[in-house]
Amino acid sequence: MSALLEVSELSVAYGAIEAVRSVSFVVEEGQIVCLIGANGAGKTTTLRTISGLLRPRAGDIRFDGESIAKAPAHLILGRGIAHSPEGRRVFARMTVEENLLLGAYTRRDESGVQQDMNRVFELFPVLGERRQQKAGLFSGGEQQMLAIGRAMMSRPRLLMLDEPSMGLSPIMTQRIFDTIRELQQGGTTILLVEQNALAALALSDRGYVVDLGQTTLEGPGHDLLADERVRAAYLGQG
Ligand code: ATP
Protein backbone atom coordinates (compact mmCIF):
# COMPACT_ATOMS: atom_id res chain seq x y z
CA MET A 1 0.00 0.00 0.00
CA SER A 2 1.11 3.55 -0.65
CA ALA A 3 -0.10 6.93 0.54
CA LEU A 4 -2.86 8.19 -1.73
CA LEU A 5 -3.45 11.34 0.32
CA GLU A 6 -1.02 12.97 2.68
CA VAL A 7 -2.00 16.05 4.63
CA SER A 8 0.85 17.64 6.55
CA GLU A 9 0.69 20.36 9.14
CA LEU A 10 -2.31 21.91 7.48
CA SER A 11 -3.43 25.30 8.70
CA VAL A 12 -6.57 27.07 7.41
CA ALA A 13 -8.12 30.33 8.59
CA TYR A 14 -11.37 32.20 7.98
CA GLY A 15 -10.02 35.74 8.26
CA ALA A 16 -8.69 35.99 11.80
CA ILE A 17 -10.30 32.70 12.90
CA GLU A 18 -7.81 29.86 12.71
CA ALA A 19 -10.14 26.89 12.17
CA VAL A 20 -7.37 24.38 11.42
CA ARG A 21 -4.03 24.84 13.18
CA SER A 22 -2.05 21.71 12.53
CA VAL A 23 -3.80 18.76 10.96
CA SER A 24 -1.69 15.87 9.66
CA PHE A 25 -2.85 12.49 8.45
CA VAL A 26 -2.28 9.88 5.79
CA VAL A 27 -4.80 7.87 3.75
CA GLU A 28 -3.35 4.77 2.17
CA GLU A 29 -4.80 3.48 -1.08
CA GLY A 30 -7.73 1.13 -0.41
CA GLN A 31 -8.30 2.20 3.18
CA ILE A 32 -11.20 3.74 5.06
CA VAL A 33 -9.82 6.52 7.26
CA CYS A 34 -11.96 8.59 9.63
CA LEU A 35 -11.53 11.94 11.31
CA ILE A 36 -13.46 12.23 14.55
CA GLY A 37 -13.71 15.06 17.03
CA ALA A 38 -16.06 17.55 18.64
CA ASN A 39 -18.20 20.02 16.69
CA GLY A 40 -16.08 22.89 15.50
CA ALA A 41 -12.81 20.94 15.72
CA GLY A 42 -12.00 21.68 12.08
CA LYS A 43 -12.97 18.49 10.27
CA THR A 44 -15.28 20.04 7.68
CA THR A 45 -12.77 22.82 7.04
CA THR A 46 -10.11 20.17 6.40
CA LEU A 47 -12.27 18.39 3.80
CA ARG A 48 -13.20 21.66 2.10
CA THR A 49 -9.54 22.57 1.85
CA ILE A 50 -8.61 19.20 0.32
CA SER A 51 -11.39 19.78 -2.25
CA GLY A 52 -9.92 23.15 -3.20
CA LEU A 53 -12.87 25.16 -1.86
CA LEU A 54 -10.63 26.83 0.74
CA ARG A 55 -6.93 27.66 0.54
CA PRO A 56 -4.44 26.44 3.11
CA ARG A 57 -2.57 29.12 4.99
CA ALA A 58 0.29 26.72 5.62
CA GLY A 59 1.10 23.06 5.25
CA ASP A 60 0.74 20.74 2.29
CA ILE A 61 -1.78 18.36 0.72
CA ARG A 62 -0.33 15.68 -1.52
CA PHE A 63 -2.47 13.40 -3.66
CA ASP A 64 -0.85 10.52 -5.45
CA GLY A 65 2.55 12.04 -4.77
CA GLU A 66 1.82 15.57 -6.05
CA SER A 67 0.90 18.70 -4.14
CA ILE A 68 -2.69 19.83 -4.77
CA ALA A 69 -2.60 22.55 -2.11
CA LYS A 70 -2.83 25.30 -4.70
CA ALA A 71 -4.94 23.54 -7.33
CA PRO A 72 -8.45 24.78 -8.18
CA ALA A 73 -11.44 22.65 -7.19
CA HIS A 74 -12.30 21.42 -10.70
CA LEU A 75 -8.77 20.10 -11.24
CA ILE A 76 -8.84 18.35 -7.88
CA LEU A 77 -12.11 16.66 -8.86
CA GLY A 78 -10.52 15.78 -12.19
CA ARG A 79 -7.57 14.19 -10.38
CA GLY A 80 -9.99 11.83 -8.64
CA ILE A 81 -11.15 13.35 -5.35
CA ALA A 82 -14.92 13.59 -4.82
CA HIS A 83 -16.63 15.22 -1.84
CA SER A 84 -20.08 14.51 -0.43
CA PRO A 85 -20.60 17.62 1.71
CA GLU A 86 -22.13 17.97 5.13
CA GLY A 87 -25.87 18.57 5.10
CA ARG A 88 -26.56 16.69 1.84
CA ARG A 89 -26.52 19.58 -0.54
CA VAL A 90 -28.52 18.07 -3.35
CA PHE A 91 -30.32 20.21 -5.90
CA ALA A 92 -33.92 20.08 -4.70
CA ARG A 93 -35.53 21.15 -7.99
CA MET A 94 -33.59 18.69 -10.08
CA THR A 95 -34.43 15.03 -10.50
CA VAL A 96 -32.39 12.19 -9.06
CA GLU A 97 -30.93 11.50 -12.50
CA GLU A 98 -30.02 15.15 -13.08
CA ASN A 99 -28.32 15.34 -9.68
CA LEU A 100 -26.32 12.21 -10.46
CA LEU A 101 -25.30 13.45 -13.90
CA LEU A 102 -23.95 16.65 -12.35
CA GLY A 103 -21.55 14.47 -10.38
CA ALA A 104 -20.19 13.15 -13.67
CA TYR A 105 -19.83 16.48 -15.46
CA THR A 106 -16.06 16.13 -15.92
CA ARG A 107 -16.43 12.79 -17.71
CA ARG A 108 -16.73 12.10 -21.42
CA ASP A 109 -17.28 8.33 -21.34
CA GLU A 110 -21.05 8.08 -21.63
CA SER A 111 -21.26 4.31 -21.28
CA GLY A 112 -19.11 4.41 -18.13
CA VAL A 113 -21.34 7.13 -16.70
CA GLN A 114 -24.41 4.96 -17.37
CA GLN A 115 -22.70 1.97 -15.72
CA ASP A 116 -21.92 4.04 -12.65
CA MET A 117 -25.47 5.35 -12.47
CA ASN A 118 -26.70 1.76 -12.53
CA ARG A 119 -24.27 0.95 -9.74
CA VAL A 120 -25.69 3.81 -7.63
CA PHE A 121 -29.19 2.39 -8.27
CA GLU A 122 -28.00 -1.08 -7.23
CA LEU A 123 -26.63 0.30 -3.97
CA PHE A 124 -29.66 2.51 -3.35
CA PRO A 125 -32.67 0.93 -5.12
CA VAL A 126 -35.02 3.69 -3.94
CA LEU A 127 -33.09 6.17 -6.07
CA GLY A 128 -33.55 3.99 -9.15
CA GLU A 129 -37.26 3.58 -8.54
CA ARG A 130 -37.69 7.34 -8.23
CA ARG A 131 -35.05 8.51 -10.69
CA GLN A 132 -37.39 10.99 -12.43
CA GLN A 133 -38.58 12.62 -9.22
CA LYS A 134 -37.28 15.88 -7.87
CA ALA A 135 -34.73 15.47 -5.08
CA GLY A 136 -36.56 17.97 -2.85
CA LEU A 137 -39.36 15.41 -2.36
CA PHE A 138 -37.03 12.90 -0.74
CA SER A 139 -36.48 12.15 2.94
CA GLY A 140 -33.25 13.16 4.68
CA GLY A 141 -31.85 9.65 4.40
CA GLU A 142 -32.68 9.44 0.71
CA GLN A 143 -31.06 12.83 0.05
CA GLN A 144 -27.98 11.57 1.86
CA MET A 145 -27.91 8.54 -0.44
CA LEU A 146 -28.21 10.87 -3.41
CA ALA A 147 -25.34 13.08 -2.18
CA ILE A 148 -23.13 9.99 -1.81
CA GLY A 149 -24.29 8.66 -5.18
CA ARG A 150 -23.50 11.99 -6.84
CA ALA A 151 -19.97 11.92 -5.41
CA MET A 152 -19.55 8.35 -6.70
CA MET A 153 -20.50 9.47 -10.22
CA SER A 154 -17.09 11.04 -10.84
CA ARG A 155 -15.65 7.54 -10.31
CA PRO A 156 -13.28 8.93 -7.69
CA ARG A 157 -10.13 7.31 -6.39
CA LEU A 158 -10.76 9.07 -3.09
CA LEU A 159 -14.30 9.64 -1.82
CA MET A 160 -14.65 12.11 1.04
CA LEU A 161 -17.87 11.84 3.06
CA ASP A 162 -18.73 14.57 5.55
CA GLU A 163 -21.11 13.34 8.29
CA PRO A 164 -22.96 10.82 6.11
CA SER A 165 -25.03 9.61 9.09
CA MET A 166 -26.16 13.03 10.26
CA GLY A 167 -29.88 13.12 11.04
CA LEU A 168 -30.47 9.54 9.94
CA SER A 169 -32.28 6.76 11.76
CA PRO A 170 -30.15 3.90 13.13
CA ILE A 171 -31.35 1.63 10.32
CA MET A 172 -30.52 4.16 7.64
CA THR A 173 -27.15 4.85 9.28
CA GLN A 174 -26.36 1.14 9.14
CA ARG A 175 -27.32 1.08 5.45
CA ILE A 176 -24.96 4.00 4.74
CA PHE A 177 -22.10 2.38 6.68
CA ASP A 178 -22.65 -0.93 4.86
CA THR A 179 -22.48 1.00 1.59
CA ILE A 180 -19.22 2.66 2.58
CA ARG A 181 -17.77 -0.81 3.20
CA GLU A 182 -19.06 -2.01 -0.19
CA LEU A 183 -17.48 0.97 -1.91
CA GLN A 184 -14.16 0.18 -0.27
CA GLN A 185 -14.45 -3.44 -1.38
CA GLY A 186 -15.06 -2.14 -4.90
CA GLY A 187 -11.69 -0.36 -4.77
CA THR A 188 -12.57 3.17 -3.64
CA THR A 189 -10.49 4.77 -0.91
CA ILE A 190 -12.62 6.60 1.66
CA LEU A 191 -12.01 9.56 3.95
CA LEU A 192 -14.86 9.84 6.42
CA VAL A 193 -15.76 12.62 8.85
CA GLU A 194 -18.23 11.44 11.48
CA GLN A 195 -19.91 12.57 14.65
CA ASN A 196 -20.84 8.94 15.22
CA ALA A 197 -17.34 8.06 16.46
CA LEU A 198 -18.16 4.53 17.57
CA ALA A 199 -19.53 3.40 14.22
CA ALA A 200 -16.87 5.28 12.25
CA LEU A 201 -13.94 3.79 14.17
CA ALA A 202 -15.42 0.30 13.95
CA LEU A 203 -15.51 0.65 10.16
CA SER A 204 -12.16 2.38 9.64
CA ASP A 205 -8.71 0.99 9.01
CA ARG A 206 -7.29 4.07 10.66
CA GLY A 207 -8.70 6.94 12.70
CA TYR A 208 -7.52 10.39 13.71
CA VAL A 209 -8.88 12.55 16.51
CA VAL A 210 -9.10 16.24 15.65
CA ASP A 211 -9.23 18.57 18.64
CA LEU A 212 -9.23 22.37 18.39
CA GLY A 213 -7.81 22.32 14.89
CA GLN A 214 -5.12 19.75 15.58
CA THR A 215 -4.76 16.01 15.05
CA THR A 216 -3.99 14.75 18.54
CA LEU A 217 -4.37 10.95 18.48
CA GLU A 218 -4.18 8.39 15.72
CA GLY A 219 -4.20 4.66 15.29
CA PRO A 220 -5.99 1.68 13.79
CA GLY A 221 -9.75 2.13 14.21
CA HIS A 222 -10.08 -0.74 16.67
CA ASP A 223 -7.19 0.53 18.82
CA LEU A 224 -8.75 3.98 19.06
CA LEU A 225 -12.09 2.40 19.95
CA ALA A 226 -10.39 0.77 22.92
CA ASP A 227 -8.41 3.88 23.92
CA GLU A 228 -9.65 5.27 27.22
CA ARG A 229 -9.06 8.87 26.19
CA VAL A 230 -11.20 8.39 23.09
CA ARG A 231 -13.89 6.57 25.01
CA ALA A 232 -14.04 9.26 27.66
CA ALA A 233 -14.17 12.15 25.20
CA TYR A 234 -16.22 10.82 22.33
CA LEU A 235 -18.03 7.68 23.25
CA GLY A 236 -19.54 8.73 26.55
CA GLN A 237 -17.80 5.95 28.44
CA GLY A 238 -14.77 6.34 30.69
P1 ATP B 1 -18.85 20.35 12.66
O1 ATP B 1 -18.96 18.90 12.94
O2 ATP B 1 -19.68 21.20 13.57
O3 ATP B 1 -18.98 20.73 11.22
P2 ATP B 1 -16.05 20.58 12.30
O4 ATP B 1 -15.04 19.81 13.09
O5 ATP B 1 -16.32 20.08 10.96
O6 ATP B 1 -17.36 20.70 13.11
P3 ATP B 1 -15.53 23.13 11.14
O7 ATP B 1 -16.89 23.22 10.55
O8 ATP B 1 -14.41 22.83 10.24
O9 ATP B 1 -15.52 22.06 12.30
O10 ATP B 1 -15.25 24.48 11.94
C1 ATP B 1 -13.99 24.78 12.54
C2 ATP B 1 -14.04 26.17 13.15
O11 ATP B 1 -14.13 27.14 12.10
C3 ATP B 1 -15.21 26.44 14.07
O12 ATP B 1 -14.76 27.22 15.12
C4 ATP B 1 -16.18 27.19 13.20
O13 ATP B 1 -16.98 28.06 13.98
C5 ATP B 1 -15.25 27.97 12.29
N1 ATP B 1 -15.85 28.22 10.96
C6 ATP B 1 -16.35 27.28 10.13
N2 ATP B 1 -16.81 27.84 8.98
C7 ATP B 1 -16.57 29.17 9.10
C8 ATP B 1 -16.80 30.31 8.26
N3 ATP B 1 -17.36 30.16 7.03
N4 ATP B 1 -16.44 31.52 8.72
C9 ATP B 1 -15.88 31.66 9.94
N5 ATP B 1 -15.63 30.65 10.77
C10 ATP B 1 -15.97 29.41 10.38
TrEMBL record:
One Gene Ontology biological process: L-amino acid transport
GO molecular function, one term: ATP binding
Organism for this UniProt entry: Actinophytocola xanthii
InterPro entries according to UniProt: AAA+_ATPase, ABC_branched_ATPase_LivF/BraG, ABC_transporter-like_ATP-bd, ABC_transporter-like_CS, BCAA_Transport_ATP-bd_LivF, P-loop_NTPase
Keyword annotations: Amino-acid transport, ATP-binding, Nucleotide-binding, Transport
Name assigned to this protein: ABC transporter ATP-binding protein
Transmembrane segments: none
Protein family per UniProt: Belongs to the ABC transporter superfamily.
Superkingdom, natural source: Bacteria
Residues of the ABC transporter domain: 5-237
Classification via PROSITE patterns: ABC_TRANSPORTER_1, ABC_TRANSPORTER_2
